[in-house]
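USER: Study each token:
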Amino acid sequence: MKLASELFEPEPPRWGLRGDPWVWRAMAERLATTYLPPSLNEVERLLYAEFDRLVSVNLASETAEWVVREEFAHGGLSSGAIHLNTWRAELIPLLLDRASSRVFS
């Protein structure tokens, strides 16, 4: 069994907005003691649920491109801004690809 937090290393080379790396790190920290579920579909559900818990946004249904959350603000003009489209199109798929290749291959 592998821990879900292992999927978060290494960090991606680019982000959507300034809050994205802070969400990434918070998700990794919260999943540090969580084992990966036995299927890729369950991994996807876990990642979406954890994102929702941290950001209070359902990625599957929210239509906004980005949101701002003060808890992920660490300085700068767009501090705390989280780019939902980047999470949908790049970051969650990256984590799922890692799960697929590292665990389910």
